[in-house]
Design a protein that fits this description.
Strand content: under 5%
Strand order of the largest sheet: 1-2
Number of strands: 2
Order of helices and strands: HHHHHEEHHHHHHHHHHHH
CATH architecture of the largest domain: Up-down Bundle
Number of domains: 2
Shape: rod-shaped
Largest sheet: 2 strands, antiparallel
CATH topology of the largest domain: Rhopdopsin 7-helix transmembrane proteins
Number of helices: 17
CATH class of the largest domain: Mainly Alpha
Length: 423
């Protein structure tokens, strides 16, 4: 009895700990918490009731009524344990149907208790099985079958990832029931309590894994939507003065390729990591978004711009940075906003400080904008525009070479020319 008492005490403490965890865990909905609390409260009560019945068995007539009441409640609740467990695992409809049937058994327990047909305590307070005790046995066995079926169903839902836990749960349950059947050693609630706790912990982990996967998938979809939206908007704006939206697609490829080539050549490797290059590719189409504030008359003028017109045209750089921040702030991460803003604002800055809008020079120009400057000019040179004819790629490479160290970052220009076959 001392071993049994110690095991029951540990079970009760475990159930209290699990109830506390469920009540304070933020990862469950109210419905999920309610089902799990039913499980652990039921194990707590049934284990305690069973211990009381065993401990005070044969202690005299004064214990007959309280022991009868406790045992009726225990016999009514114990078959409901797998029902609560099934509900906790998300099998709501079967749990409700089976639970309704088991409620009829609970009603039978209450109605038949005064007649001692399922069990009774004699005048000495000794527990004795009644003539129809088999009703409880059949219901209890059916409840265990339902628990096994529920766990198999949940295992399929989690794509068999929980198979080791399922096996351990079966072993725990069997190990606790076999001694009860063969040797009348009452360890069933101990095993069920451990099984419920194990599945609570493991299934919760699986649910959180699935939630995380869904969040990642949703985040990926959001980024794809952002990328498509950014690209479509940039194409629309670019088509006003280029005549085609293909420029933004090529620019994304050019800047990504140049950044990767630079990293392979050991240039700016402290900055050019995968994350930087990914952001650069994604935000490159936003570099000319500021052209939305420039009139069509200037953008589509076939000849050279006047000084006044050029000043109006230059507004697209700072306005682009402002628009990017207004459009993207709060919609995507700050790192993406900052990258897009730098590209839009500074891609017309020059290495020698004679660019616009701020006249930055050298490495004071953001690296993303220095990469964009080469890609943007190269694509502009080899493309036909309203105001010019396209030049050959060889001529474009020569221009990049001539302006290395004046217009362009010389380190990046060297990388670009060394890998001209990539462009």
């Amino acid at each position: 009895m001392s071993f049994y008492a110690g095991a029951i005490l540990l079970t009760e403490l475990l159930m209290v700990a699990m109830m506390y965890h469920v009540a304070h865990y933020p990862g469950f909905s109210r419905v999920e918490k309610r089902w799990y609390l039913f499980v652990f409260i039921t194990v707590f009560f049934c284990a305690g009731a069973e211990f009381a019945a065993r401990h005070f068995d044969g202690c005299g007539p004064s214990f007959v009524l309280p022991l009868t009441v406790l045992t009726v409640i225990q016999f009514s609740l114990s078959p409901m344990l797998p029902v609560f467990f099934g509900g906790a695992l998300g099998i709501y409809r079967p749990a409700i149907v089976v639970g309704t049937v088991f409620c009829l058994h609970a009603l039978a327990e209450v109605v038949l208790a005064p007649f001692g047909l399922i069990f009774y305590f004699d005048e000495a307070g000794k527990y004795i099985r009644g003539e129809y005790y088999i009703i409880y046995e059949i219901t209890y066995i059916l409840s265990l079958v339902f628990m096994i079926v529920s766990m198999i169903a949940v295992s399929r839902r989690f794509k068999r990832r929980d198979l080791p836990t399922l096996i351990m749960a079966f072993v725990l349950t069997a190990a606790s029931i076999v001694p009860l059947i063969l040797f009348r050693v009452y360890t069933d609630y101990i095993g069920i309590g451990l099984c419920a706790s194990l599945c609570y912990i493991y299934y919760n982990d699986l649910i959180q894994e699935d939630i995380q996967e869904k969040l990642v998938a949703n985040q990926d979809r959001m980024f794809q939507m952002q990328e498509h939206t950014i690209s479509a908007m940039s194409r629309l704006i670019e088509s006003r003065n280029v005549g085609s939206g293909e420029h933004v697609s090529r620019i994304s490829e050019f800047v990504g390729t140049l950044a990767e080539d630079a990293r392979r050549d050991g240039v700016y490797v402290e900055t050019l990591d995968d994350d930087f290059i990914s952001k650069l590719r994604m935000m490159a189409p936003m570099h000319d978004i500021g052209k939305i504030v420039v009139s069509d008359r200037i953008l589509t003028k076939p000849g050279k711009l006047t000084e006044e017109e050029f000043e109006c045209f230059k507004r697209h750089a700072p306005e682009g940075g402002r628009i990017v921040r207004e459009v993207l702030s709060g919609v995507t991460e700050e790192e993406y906003v900052s990258m897009a803003s730098d590209l839009a604002t500074y891609h017309h800055e020059r290495w020698d400080g004679r660019g616009y809008p701020e006249g930055l020079s050298g490495e004071n120009i953001p690296l993303s904008a220095r990469i964009m400057a080469i890609a943007d000019v190269f694509d502009a040179l080899i493309s036909e525009r309203y105001y010019k004819e396209a030049v050959s790629k060889e001529q474009a490479f020569d221009i990049i070479r001539q302006e290395s160290g004046t217009h362009f970052d010389p380190h990046l220009a060297e990388v670009f020319l060394n890998h001209r076959e990539d462009f």
